[in-house]
Amino acid sequence: MVFRRPERAKSPVEPVTLKILVAGGFGVGKTTLVGAVSEIRPLRTEELLTEAGRPVDDLSGIEGKHTTTVAMDFGRITLRADLVLYLFGTPGQERFWFMWDELSEGALGAVVLADTRRLEDCFAAVDYFERRAIPFVVAVNCFEDADRYPAETVRQALDLDPHVPLLLCDARDRESVKEVLIGVVRHAMDRAAERRRAVTG
Asked: DSSP readout, 64-99?
């Protein structure tokens, strides 16, 4: 009779957790994006838009919007058994931008969501991540009633550096959003590798 040593139970893989920000202008679809892909019920901090906010909340092109994020959206997605992303959607209105510094602490990278009907609304987010050297991708949310433009035209309009990825997406579609998030992780890792090469030279 042959006795076999009992196999040790494999310890579960401890996943790497990464923080990703989702930023962009007011009404661009950040809350929708986080909700579309999150495997947990997303945490939302939305409040109804009020008459008091009408003078400062520009609703051109998004007249059907009735709520706004006042703090953040939060969701989670497991991309692989060993890789989990925590998603933090930032508030889009200027009066809530003071929260961005706190939310960006420890972030691997960011998605800047853009709407071609209000492209100028994402300038502040692009500027923010460029100044803080946080890797980001620009994802154009393809609204049904928005005009379609070639990616290069949008890139020029935003004056993006050549290394910044520009992607098209549907913020309502889980698979489309996953591709954007995979793009952010890859881009952030590529940028980190470039910095390491520059240091070791």
From this structure: T--EEEEEEEEEEEEEETTEEEEEEEPP-SGGGGGG
